[in-house]
Amino acid sequence: MIYRNQEIVTPIVPSTVSYYTVPGEETLDRKAICCFAATGFFLDDETYFINKKAFRPATIYRFDGTGNPVSERYFHWHYSPRTISFSQSLEEFTGLLEEIVRCETAGKKVVLPISGGLDSRTLAATLIGRTDVVSYSYQFKDGIPENFYGEAVARALSFMYKPFVIPRGYLWSVINDLALINSCYAEFVNPRQMAIWQQLNDVGDIFLLGHGGDLFFDGMGVPDDLDEQGQLQYLVKKLIKPAGWELGEAFWKVWGLEGNFKDYMVSRLSEILSRITIENANARLRAFKTEYYVARWTAVNLEIFKRQLPVSLPFFHDGMCRFICTIPEQHLAGRKLEIEYLKQKFPLVAAIPWQKYFPCNLYNYSGFNSLTIKTKRGLIKAGREFKKHILGMRSDTRNWELQFLGKSNDELLQSYLFDKSFEHLLPPSVVKNFYTLFQQNPQQYVHSITMLLTLSLFNRLFFKDRPR
Question: What is the homologous superfamily of the domain 86-218+291-364 according to CATH?
Fold first, then answer.
């Protein structure tokens, strides 16, 4: 945020979620919490409390003498495609990205996380020739060897490289720190960076992060002329987590809220979507996810990085946001700009397999479903199954499996879920029901457990001692 005279100006895409309070009693916003339980993030400017609000993106705030804000948008997402060729779009993207990275990292030793996707290797390619880069990656113990990608990119660019392996059960040693960092505005299982927290703050000066690239430089996979109802259905399908409806409805009922949770949730999404006046469905849905998901989920978890080092987020840059609004959708769809940038900038990096399409790379990923590649994929899967079922080797590949499965993990999980003080917020019967469902069908109900764990920490650290 920028503080200007008596004004507060928020960026188009915030990297930090900041809050303010308005006059009134500090009362739980139970409807907002129901939506949070279903999706994993708070909608719009909502928080745990009715009198506490999040600053909205791209907005100028002025506070009057009563403590109430007067706000004004200075930027609205739009779709104003120019009549330009793809090569022109690529040239402009190249110039803009490299200039942002140069300006924000000049004279600083860069710490670059590298994954198997495109965003981090795109940023890596902007650093060609620099000797002040420390790169790293991480993978789960007994999981897919994700460090392979980071090491391959680092070797191609001659970067210093640090591999990390995330152990089972790491969450429990850092969960209180994580809850204080994100204030329980996001669940605790997905931010893997916490597993190596404070192990990188003395190796460089700034994190260079690729967050947002996969959203900005791709389509949403819907027809450009998809109607309003179709867009709303898309959002409901994408945003509501497995068993999210069940959890939200359970909260709604035990708290005795009027009406029906599902109707309320859909109406909230519809109202928020209606604020974005873009005809092109892909551009409109991208704007929605940037405005409400990136700003309220991604930004919350970025605090883990920012508590260690300053961060540079080139894809969040205001100039990049304005650029996106003027590029034809057909140039953005399919990650074309990043793919062509990498192929032209550093072919050796483009030839490294793309994790999403492994074992394919940026030159042959279009043949992912060909008979030859399907055969290779089948052999790879058979090898994993052999190790798992014949050799008895574990193959945990998801963070929640590492943190929740097994006797010691389960005991620690229960210590939070069935904490006596949690009864101040939710009846034990609700917690017990979802815990039992998780035991019966972990994959379907893991989101419910992560949200209950988050709310248990919220209650313990931020709520239980407050007057009611």
Answer: HUPs (3.40.50.620)
